[in-house]
Amino acid sequence: VELIVGPSEEVIPQLKEKHGLLQADLVFMDHWKRCYLRDLQLLEAHDLLPEGATILADNVIFPGAPQFLQYVKACGKYQWKLHRTSLQYFRAIRDGMAQLTYTGLKR
């Protein structure tokens, strides 16, 4: 395991050349929710997602990542499922985790 520290918008474009990561079979997103869409699109643009790659995105309902969810639903590149849950420390607040499978196909 290699820990890479830095802003995701700077790190993702360098993953292949600087860090030798050719593809990511599993991506777990649990950072700034407003960055989920940008980072997913960076992964796509740099061909880092092989067909069948899994992307897990936490807290997509609260605090939420609505643009990310809208894109995933509309772009035709993903099979997706929303796992409903609640916040870890506040069970009364509903939340969800998105599970995406990259198909690479536009429907």
Describe this structure in words.
Its main location: endoplasmic reticulum. This is catechol O-methyltransferase. Belongs to the class I-like SAM-binding methyltransferase superfamily. Cation-dependent O-methyltransferase family. It is found in: Endoplasmic reticulum. By secondary structure, the chain is of the alpha+beta class. Helix content is 27%, strand content 24%. The chain has a 4-stranded mixed β-sheet. α2 packs parallel to α4. The radius of gyration is 14 Å and the shape is globular.
Features:
27% helix, globular, alpha+beta, 107 residues, four-stranded mixed β-sheet, 4 helices
Give a count of the beta strands, DSSP E runs of length 2 or more: 4
Shape: globular
Give helix % range.
Answer: 25-40%
Helical region count?
Answer: 4
Low-confidence stretches: none
Beta-strand content estimate: 15-25%
Radius of gyration: 14 Å
Task: State the separation between the terminal residues, measured CA to CA.
Answer: 35 Å
Which oligomerization state do the chains in this entry correspond to? single chain
Biggest sheet: strands side by side, in what order?
1-2-4-3
User: What structural category arises from helix and sheet content?
Assistant: alpha+beta
State mean pLDDT (0 to 100 scale): 94
The SSE order reads HEHEHHEE
